[in-house]
Write a structure and sequence with these properties.
The complex is a heterodimer. By secondary structure, chain A is an alpha+beta fold. Chain A contains seven helices and four strands. In chain A, a hairpin with a 2-residue loop joins strand 3 and strand 4. In chain A, helix 1 packs antiparallel against helix 2 and helix 3 crosses helix 4. By secondary structure, chain B is of the alpha/beta class. Chain B is about 40% helix and about 15% strand. In chain B, the strands form five sheets. Chain B has a five-stranded mixed sheet, covered by helices on one side. In chain B, strands 15-14-18-16-17 form a five-stranded mixed sheet. A four-stranded parallel sheet of chain B has the order 10-7-6-11, sandwiched between helices. The longest helix of chain B has 18 residues. Chain B is globular, with a radius of gyration of 24 Å. Chain B starts with a strand and ends in a 10-residue tail after the last helix. The relative contact order of chain B is 0.10. Classes of the chains: A alpha+beta, B alpha/beta. The interface between A and B is large, with 42 and 58 residues.
């Protein structure tokens, strides 16, 4: 069970190995690792640094800088609630509270059963159809608190 | 029987409004031929279904799957050009929206696409830059820098490699026109970048696209491949390769030097200027970094002449501006008009008023760093200079309307918390100032604030404005200070009775 993520990490790193004179692009490699593995486990930082020929600190620095890079495994379904100005004006805060109440978790947390992770996002360009919630990559607009249960229920598995 | 040809937008917001559900519901119907176009930008009417008629396209608005019979029979449709929200606009950069299929290269060309590039290829690079100079185009991302000056500098700087970078990190909340361009008219962005490459002698292009726009990135990649297959990227005897690079959720990466750091794969930390990117940008080479909308404006300028562009707008803001309405208005959507109309006129003409139950309280122009305007300050003309004089910004054209339910102290705290989250940390005024600002506003929100705290916010704001390295720290105080200026009672009423002044 544990062998698979490791092998895909090595595969990703192999495909990202910089060929001189190309310089290593740490951010793009970390995004590729996250795409393959689901997140960028901190324990892999030294290995990534070694393959790219950069320092551990450079990799860790990039990993901690970008909000969309995850150092910990998220829940099976990630919920993003938009907190941009148009969504805020259109009561996105009420939608966020409805989700928090339903799942009993705070922003940034995962439900104990590992099904959902709740994140804030800052504008997905859907301002004209706000407020916006993204559930498992699917975007919902004009969301009201009363719709939350029916949006999340099918993914509660 | 011939299937009925119907047009339905495939834009992210149109899908969020129900266009996707409609397409799913109708895909099994043999009598329907659905053409997925770009979006009109009138998102409050989405999903919009259109059909050809002798008078032009007929539209059905806010359509649900059950509406098919009346659409098929052609009953109750409205001529799309008769809808005031669209009719009152001056669509140039967004002329194709709702009309063409985003990835149909032949449709782009039949609407005049690549005429600008052909003109540019027949001119000397210097003449291309001269045309941009005549157009008086200023950058549409927020800084409003004259485009030709950057191009001239990059052209004149000697280097083995030069780069063209499209800033597609449209991070200002309340803005979505770059997303619409990339999803809806991708060849226009490619054409604009090619014209720039021709003018400065660039060898490679990048589109730095935010992580939040997966559909835009996918559309751009397909469009680049199609253009390459057709030989349209051949420039100066070589292929001008354009690559889409994805960001990772950092707002400050929309600042051009932070964007370049991020493009090189590092932490998106702002660089001190000078040197400007036009001299030493990506990998230290001359680089033009411009907003997606700026590049998308360029093909028309070359095809129709710089003088055509300069004939629209106000003295120092020429051409059209893409405004994006959002918040508590009835008619959120994209509005392209010449510069010069007042904010009040724009809201009256296009917003359709407030949604039921809402009363106007304030409008914010220019994203999370933009100033707030109360009802009494709406007679400001929409142009760079009037906004600069008022200490405000047009930014990327976002307009968000707030209603009476908006708590101005909470909104101000939200803005400062945003800057504290997004500060790159390089300069002290922004890194520390935003955190202190957030703490002061949290104190006021908790009823623990003192009268001096409002003074302190002013002092802090002056320091951040004067001493921050980039616009994030430099502009962050504006929404907070304009909220205090226009809604002082809300702040004072929350001050602690102990030491507070009523």
């Amino acid at each position: 069970m544990t062998a698979r993520p490791k092998s895909s990490l090595e595969e990703v790193l192999e495909s990202c190995r910089p060929v001189p004179p190309a310089k290593p692009n740490i951010l793009q490699v970390l995004l590729a690792v996250q795409e393959a593995v689901g997140y960028v486990p901190t324990k892999h930082v030294p290995r990534i640094a070694q393959v790219l020929g950069v320092t551990d600190a450079q990799v860790a620095g990039v990993l901690s800088y970008y909000p969309d890079l995850r150092a910990e495994s998220p829940g099976r379904c990630v919920i993003g609630v938009c907190m941009g100005e148009s969504c805020t004006a259109n009561h996105g805060g009420r939608v966020l509270r409805a989700i928090q109440d339903l799942l009993s978790i705070d922003v940034g947390d995962m439900t104990p059963n590992g099904r959902f992770t709740l994140d804030k996002v800052y504008c997905v360009g859907n301002c004209a159809v706000s407020p916006t919630v993204i559930v498992g990559g699917e975007l919902y607009g004009r969301v009201t608190p009363s719709q939350i249960l029916s949006i999340l229920e099918p993914r509660n598995k | 029987m011939k299937p009925t040809r119907l047009y339905l937008a495939n834009d992210t917001s149109a899908r969020a409004a129900g266009a996707g559900r409609l397409a799913d519901a109708w895909k099994e119907r043999p009598e329907v031929q659905l053409v997925r176009t770009s979006a009109r930008g009138a998102f409050y009417l989405e999903p919009i279904v259109e059909q050809d008629s002798p008078q032009g396209r007929l539209a059905w608005i806010n359509v649900s799957p059950d509406d098919f019979p009346r659409i098929e029979s052609g009953l109750e449709g409205t001529l799309i050009d008769s809808i005031p929200f669209l009719r009152q606009q001056t669509r140039h950069t967004f002329a194709n929206f709702g009309v063409t299929e985003p990835l149909a290269l032949d449709e782009y060309q039949s609407q005049g696409g690549f005429k600008g590039l052909i003109t540019a290829l027949n001119l000397s690079p210097e003449a291309v830059i001269e045309e941009i100079k005549i157009s008086r185009l200023r950058g549409r991302g927020g800084a409003a820098f004259p485009v030709w000056t950057k191009w001239q500098i990059a052209r004149q700087t000697e280097a083995d490699d030069k780069y063209v970078v499209a800033n597609a990190d449209e991070g200002d909340a309340g803005t979505y026109c770059d997303r619409m361009i990339m999803e809806g008219d991708p060849f226009r962005l490619i054409e604009g970048m090619l014209i720039c490459a021709r003018a400065i002698g660039a060898t490679r292009g990048y589109i730095y696209c935010r992580h939040e726009y997966p559909a835009a990135a996918a559309t751009m990649r397909t469009a680049i491949r199609k253009a390459m297959d057709e030989g349209l990227l051949d420039l100066n005897g070589a292929s001008f390769e354009i690559e889409v690079i994805i960001g990772a959720g950092s707002y400050v990466c929309g600042e051009e030097t932070a964007l370049l750091e991020s493009l090189e794969g590092r932490r998106g930390v702002v660089r001190a200027k000078p040197p400007y990117p036009a001299v030493a940008g990506l990998y230290g080479r001359p680089t033009i970094v411009s907003n997606v909308l700026t590049f998308a404006t360029i093909p028309n300028i070359l095809a129709r002449g710089g003088a055509w562009h300069a004939s629209m707008g106000t003295e120092r803001s020429r051409g059209t501006i893409a405004l994006q309405l959002g918040g508590r208005v009835k008619q959120p959507g994209l509005v392209e008009i010449p510069f010069g109309r007042t904010l009040r006129q724009v809201l009256e003409q296009f917003s359709g008023g407030m949604v039921p139950g809402s009363r106007f309280k304030a409008v914010q122009v220019g994203g999370p760093l933009g100033s707030l305007f109360p009802e009494s300050n709406l007679d400001i003309p929409i142009c760079y200079d009037a906004f600069a004089e008022a200490g405000a910004i047009l930014g990327h054209g976002g307009i968000v309307v707030y209603d009476q339910d908006t708590d101005m102290v909470e909104l101000s705290r939200h803005f400062m918390a945003f800057t504290a989250d997004e500060s790159c940390g390089k300069c002290t005024p922004c890194r520390v100032g935003s955190v202190r600002g957030r703490e002061i506003l949290e104190r006021i929100q908790a009823g623990q604030g003192r009268a001096e705290d409002l003074e302190l916010l002013h002092d802090l704001g002056d320091t951040m404005k004067a001493a921050s390295l980039c616009a994030l720290g430099g502009r962050a105080p504006y929404p907070v200070l304009t909220a205090i200026e226009h809604f002082p009672k809300e702040f004072r009423s929350k001050l602690s009775a102990f030491g507070g002044q009523q």
